[in-house]
């Protein structure tokens, strides 16, 4: 499947085949491809909780009452780290190697990241959500390239999900992504009209 076909064929699936799963190896392949998504300073301030068990789905469904959560073989909770720019992020050590071990240069880069993202709660949230959002879309396209359908969801009690799955205060739930396969007995609506360049782009 070409990249153009992935974009054209990906749809938001409302009806999942409850008898067709997503194997563990396939899910790993999807995630391992999706993490090639870009992130600020390559800090990758994201985590994913794969909700697969009946008990886990029921816990999640309490706070995001969409039937897809119970029907899809797996729903991913996409989590952003609001303090993923700080020195505890292990990816800084990778950057240190790229900088030839120059700790002063690393400290300067860390200071720049803090200045951009760590000076207000608004900036922290933007940092977490924008980077995790890049991962989320990457996951959906990666899934489609492997023949797996998806549906993103943002209608939920975000704080309820955060607490239910015992995420720290500096973590924020960004969205859910149900993964599985279309129930072929159901028919999707035709793709809705998308506004193009002439309607959404302002040249300055």
Structure, explained:
- This protein is α+β, with helices and mostly antiparallel strands and 204 residues long.
- The chain has helices spanning 3-9, 24-34, 54-61, 67-71, 91-98, 103-117, 121-145, 158-164, 197-200, and strands at 46-51, 74-81, 149-153, 171-180.
- The chain has a single domain (3-37, 46-84, 122-200), classed as NADH Oxidase (3-Layer(aba) Sandwich), CATH 3.40.109.
- Helix content is 44%, strand content 14%.
- It has a four-stranded antiparallel sheet, with helices on both faces.
- The model has no long low-confidence stretch (mean pLDDT 97).
Strand content: 5-15%
What is the CATH fold-level name?
Answer: NADH Oxidase
Shape: globular
Contiguous runs where pLDDT drops below 50 for at least 5 residues = none
Measured distance between first and last alpha carbons: 36 Å
Overall pLDDT metric: 97
Helix vs. strand class: alpha+beta
CATH superfamily: NADH Oxidase
Rg estimate, integer Å = 19 Å
Provide the domain count. 1
CATH class: Alpha Beta
The count of strands amounts to 4
Strands of the biggest beta sheet: in what spatial order?
Answer: 1-2-4-3
Main β-sheet, in a few words?
4 strands, antiparallel
In CATH, the architecture is 3-Layer(aba) Sandwich
What is the count of DSSP helices, taking H or I runs of 4+ residues?
A: 9
In N-to-C order, the SSE pattern is HHEHHEHHHEHEH
Approximate helicity band: 40-55%
* Quaternary: single chain
